[in-house]
Amino acid sequence: MRITAIKSTLVLLLFFASFSINAGVIVLDGTYQGDDVYFQNPYNSSDNSFCVTEAYINDAPVENINSSAFEVPLSNFKIGDYVRIKLVHRDYCKPRVLNPEVLMSKSTYELVSMKVDESSLKWTTNNESNHEPFVIEHFRNNKWVPIGKVIGKGPDGYNNYNFEVNHHSGVNKYRIKQRDLGNKYKYAQPVEYISDKSPITYYPKRVDKELYLSESTTYEIYDSFGGIVLKGEDQTINVSDFEPGIYYLNIDNRTEKFLKK
């Protein structure tokens, strides 16, 4: 069973670069603009160690990080290339990026066409200035939900993209977006597809231990106060640890109600 635990995650957004900090990991990504990235790396005299233990550029290890400040060299990249820097650090300290603006660029793509069929979302762009990722979103449960990411192909004229999608029953809406200056997004006009899939069903409505779905799907469960208590993707959902009461199940772009006995 694949269940996503509900964790408290701090997300810091600064300029065009994005940060996510959770359990000793920082990720900084953006597009190369011609300069290296510099980090301040705190030193702990009690155990004679620096804060950062590992560093990676697009999954390749970075050397020479054992100093109070170090650079992540990016000279092997071309202007506009997508860059993802990952730092692993000790839990009791936090490194600091000194110049996040060097990964800042402007989203300039022109959307030529976009359509969705029974299995995939396809779009064509022109005049891309960089390799900034396109984020694909699906409208589910009254909100836009990111379902994937595709690295931009860059300034090579017309670029074609194909992303596999999994429709829910009824009307499906999809859109793409790409980060712009100041961590704002440039959105494309949504496209729609009407699926003839049968709605996903579930039982029982008065449950003791497990909910059973007619097929495996993503789901969210909320308590009567609107707080999310569980989410994941599966065909069977274990709710045996839930307190008795009324809960709400988001599946297949709709909300259902069940009682935990």
Strands, helices and their partners?
Elements: E1 2-4, E2 13-14, E3 17-21, E4 25-31, E5 37-40, E6 43-44, E7 49-50, E8 52-57, E9 60-61, E10 69-72, E11 82-89, E12 96-97, E13 110-116, E14 120-126, E15 134-140, E16 143-150, E17 159-164, E18 170-179, E19 185-187, E20 191-195, E21 202-203, E22 206-207, E23 210-222, E24 228-238, E25 245-251, E26 254-260
Parallel strand pairs: 22-26
Antiparallel strand pairs: 1-24, 2-3, 3-4, 4-11, 5-10, 5-12, 6-7, 8-9, 8-11, 13-14, 14-17, 15-16, 15-18, 18-19, 18-20, 21-23, 23-24, 23-25, 25-26
Could you tell me the mean pLDDT?
Answer: 87
Work out the strand percent.
over 45%
Number of strands: 26
Shape: flat
Note the main sheet. 7 strands, mixed
What is the element string, with H for helices and E for strands? EEEEEEEEEEEEEEEEEEEEEEEEEE
How much helical structure, as a percent, in the residues? under 10%
Radius of gyration from CA coordinates: 22 Å
**Structural class by secondary-structure content:** mainly beta
